[in-house]
Design goal:
Its cofactor is FAD. The chain is an alpha/beta fold. The chain contains 10 helices and 8 strands. An 8-stranded parallel beta barrel has the order 1-2-3-4-5-6-7-8, surrounded by 5 helices. The longest helix is centred in the C-terminal third of the chain and has 21 residues. The chain binds flavin-adenine dinucleotide. Flavin-adenine dinucleotide (FAD) binds next to strand 3, strand 4, helix 4, helix 5 and strand 6.
Length: 274
């Protein structure tokens, strides 16, 4: 069975939240396994992440908060886990996170995602299904591709149940990553993270930051469209649908959409596939 999940980021205004709840309802019609909600490392969105998670969960749809350990203490993280348990949450996306540059480690007691996974298991046993992040094109700060694979395996062995990848536009990078970590003993599902293409400059900025490569042929085409956003959306839908089809045909167990709090682009791709 193909799993489907959608990712949101916490909104800043009441109006934004109202809009997001409409988006949630539109996406809920496609029976996703869960909606995940990002978390600002260092706790900057702690309350807003919680509020969105609560609003999703109250509609009877599973919500999976992201939780980043960098910049936080064990006591803070324990408090957040308690809050989520009380709310009936049973899935967490466990991350190291990125602090804004120049802010150092900010008193982190847990330095890497594997430390967080281990801590959550110690504190809460098997209560939470734990998702971790995977980087088919290598995490941008990794010292080497091989070391990054080892570090991924480390967090799986610490107790992760499933992984979601950073987005990518090259299906082979996903298949190669999966093959390599499976050969290292990993047998959890690795769900490709899918970024719909709707705006070239935003996508280029994002991709530079997170180390996702936009292949030259896609970049050149998007650049050539300039301000013609209809063409960008149409081309983006074709390209992303094609990648998803290849991923699913090649055995990917599901898809996780980075929705950017919008429903149209993710749904357009999903509808092409089902
Ligand atoms: P880790 O797995 O800890 O890896 C971080 C780096 O350290 C890698 O280079 C790795 O090779 C290395 N490493 C790992 N373990 C060790 C170790 N034990 N010893 C030495 N080196 C090690 N960021 C947010 O701030 N909030 C979010 O909500 C958020 N959601 C995300 C969701 C997904 C699906 C993905 C893919 C990313 C998300 N991110 C989020 C971004 C993520 O936090 C950053 O990419 C961050 O830099 C790494 O987090 P991680 O959990 O992958 O870290």
């Amino acid at each position: 069975m193909t799993t489907l999940s959608f990712e949101f980021f916490p909104t800043k205004t009441e109006e934004g939240t109202e809009k997001l709840l409409t988006v949630r309802d539109e996406l809920a019609a496609f029976n996703p396994e869960f909606f995940s909600v990002t978390y600002g490392a260092g706790g900057s969105t702690r309350d807003r992440t919680y509020a969105i998670v609560k609003a999703i969960q109250e509609r009877g749809i599973a919500a999976a908060p992201h939780l980043a350990c960098i910049g936080g203490s064990k006591a803070e993280i324990r408090g957040i886990l308690d809050q989520y348990k009380e709310l009936g949450i049973d899935r967490i996306v466990a991350l190291r996170g990125d602090l804004p540059s120049g802010s150092g480690l900010g008193g982190s007691e847990l330095r890497y995602a594997n430390d967080l996974v281990e801590f959550i298991r110690e504190e809460t046993g098997d209560h939470f299904t734990l998702e971790v992040a995977a980087y088919p094109e290598m995490h941008p700060q990794a010292t080497s591709f091989e070391k990054d694979l080892e570090n991924f395996v480390r967090k799986v062995k610490a107790g992760a149940d499933s992984a979601i990848t950073q987005y990518f536009f090259n299906a082979d990078s996903y298949f190669y990553f999966v093959e390599r970590v499976q050969a290292m003993g990993v047998d959890i599902p690795i769900i490709p993270g899918i970024m719909p293409i709707t705006n070239y400059s935003k996508l280029a900025r994002f991709s530079d930051g997170c180390g996702a490569e936009i292949p030259r042929w896609i970049r050149k085409q998007l650049e050539a469209y300039g301000d013609d956003s209809d063409s960008i959306v149409k081309f983006g839908e074709e390209v992303v649908t094609d990648i998803c089809r290849r991923l699913l045909d090649g055995g990917a167990p599901g898809l996780h959409f980075y929705t950017m709090n919008q429903s149209e682009a993710s749904l357009a791709v999903w509808k092409n596939l089902v």
